[in-house]
């Protein structure tokens, strides 16, 4: 299919972070764009401000007439949508061209020079850094992001069409729709076992992804991953590595060693050693296409971060409030490392909303161990997303596994009253569900009237 011949695009699940980036892209390319999502959010409000019509009613009668002409319309849906969704069922029964988001990304990128970021952790931050580096260094680039990049207040960076940056998502093997010229794999930790069943099947899918890289293409891999590629990390044996790390005025300063040079005294403002690695591989990928290293080093210092990725909500001498998307034990460990490195003597309270019954079940012991590291733990009920409950898998069950006496289970309804009365130095809201909706309420507790 040639997307140039498509004039009308209807999204089912348009408010999703990846879906909305595609919606913006098509709107900016003068296509007719509309869609459905189950509720209005900041993202859907932003889409409507661009002139994109968004409905919250699953009702075919509310779909504008121009989107019911199947000859020049495509339907893009997210796997999070139920197969019984009324609009999706209508489009299927009437033989519309229907695509998953990943399939459309594959179509968009196949005629461009594509840089793809894969891995179970770090995709959004790495791709956001990479898109920012290229944009700052005046490379002709479009970057589709899985989060809102603070520098652009958007999940889409549009600075040209020659090069594309995309997240290569392992969920439901979506990344096998891509054929990148350059790719990286940040991690291959077990995740999405509800889809893959066993860790080995997930590992196999990453191997399949590497086979999707175009002939004469390039693969960058974290130094601990046993795949052939250009390595990066902290070890001196890695092709690209970081050394001389220090903290100055709350930010990292470090050197990058490349196969041919050393770039010294780079500034980077995102906390956490994992973010240093994200910045390193973004730097390496951008350098691979010929971007000058002096420009890349400067651009790393201007990257402001991604919303809900160690996102400072309040930062004073007496109190810090951070919101983060971490939803896997490895990510929670990385968050803990970042907080302890920046605030080694402070009391840290984490409010965690587990995401998915299956993930909670599969990694219960690992979650318990990672959460126990914090000084105080508040658990919310599991956010189900696309899943039905699993018998016996509850936040109360998880709480009992955490070896720390300073722990409790709260509902979202009584969370704010509780937070108003706790005493802590560092407060973290953590998870991939709807915990983000509580952030403004918590922030107001500490700022309104102060």
Automatic annotation (TrEMBL):
Its EC number is 6.3.2.8. It is an enzyme of class 6 (ligase). SUPFAM superfamilies: MurCD N-terminal domain (SSF51984), MurD-like peptide ligases, catalytic domain (SSF53623), MurD-like peptide ligases, peptide-binding domain (SSF53244). Pathway: Cell wall biogenesis; peptidoglycan biosynthesis. ATP binds at residues 119-125. The keyword Membrane applies. Residues 117-286 form the Mur ligase central domain. Belongs to the MurCDEF family. This is UDP-N-acetylmuramate--L-alanine ligase. It comes from Kordia antarctica. The gene is murC.
């Amino acid at each position: 299919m040639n997307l140039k011949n498509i004039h009308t695009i209807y999204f089912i699940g348009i408010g999703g972070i990846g879906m909305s980036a595609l919606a913006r892209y098509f709107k900016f390319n003068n296509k007719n764009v509309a869609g459905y999502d189950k509720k209005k959010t900041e993202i859907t409000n932003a889409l409507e401000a661009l002139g994109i019509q968004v409905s919250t009613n699953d009702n075919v009668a509310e779909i504008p007439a121009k989107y019911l002409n199947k000859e020049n319309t495509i339907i893009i849906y997210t796997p999070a949508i139920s197969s019984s969704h009324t609009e999706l069922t209508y489009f299927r029964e009437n033989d519309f061209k229907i695509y998953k988001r990943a399939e459309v990304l594959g179509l968009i990128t196949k005629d461009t020079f594509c840089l793809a970021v894969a891995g179970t952790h770090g995709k959004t931050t790495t791709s956001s850094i990479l898109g920012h580096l290229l944009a700052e260094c005046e490379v002709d680039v479009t970057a589709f992001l899985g989060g809102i990049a603070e520098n652009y207040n958007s999940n889409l960076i549009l600075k040209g069409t020659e090069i594309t940056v995309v997240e290569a998502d392992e969920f439901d093997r979506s990344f096998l729709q891509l054929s990148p010229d350059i790719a990286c794999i940040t991690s291959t930790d077990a995740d999405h076992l509800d889809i893959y069943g066993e860790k080995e099947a997930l590992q196999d899918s990453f191997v399949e992804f590497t086979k999707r890289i175009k002939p004469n293409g390039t693969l960058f891999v974290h130094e601990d991953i046993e795949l052939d590629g250009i390595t990066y990390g902290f070890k001196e044996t890695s092709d690209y590595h970081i050394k001389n790390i220090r903290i100055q005025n709350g930010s990292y300063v470090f050197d990058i060693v490349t196969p041919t040079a050393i770039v010294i005294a780079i500034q980077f403002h995102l906390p956490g050693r994992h973010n240093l690695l994200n910045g390193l591989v973004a730097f390496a990928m951008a350098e691979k296409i010929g971007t000058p290293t002096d420009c890349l080093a400067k651009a790393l210092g201007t990257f402001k971060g991604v919303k809900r990725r160690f996102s400072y909500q309040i930062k004073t001498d007496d109190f810090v409030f951070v919101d983060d998307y971490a939803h896997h034990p490895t990510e929670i460990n990385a968050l803990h490392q970042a907080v302890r490195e920046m605030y080694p003597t402070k009391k840290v309270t984490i409010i965690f909303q587990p995401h998915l019954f299956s993930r909670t079940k599969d990694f219960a012991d690992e979650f318990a161990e990672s959460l126990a590291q914090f000084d105080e733990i508040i658990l919310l009920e599991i956010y189900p997303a696309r899943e039905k409950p699993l018998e016996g898998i509850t936040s109360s069950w998880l709480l009992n596994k955490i070896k720390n006496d300073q722990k409790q289970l709260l509902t979202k309804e009584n969370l704010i009253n509780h937070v108003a009365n706790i005493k802590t130095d560092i407060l973290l809201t953590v998870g991939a569900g709807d915990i983000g909706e509580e952030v403004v309420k918590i922030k107001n507790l500490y700022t309104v009237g102060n």
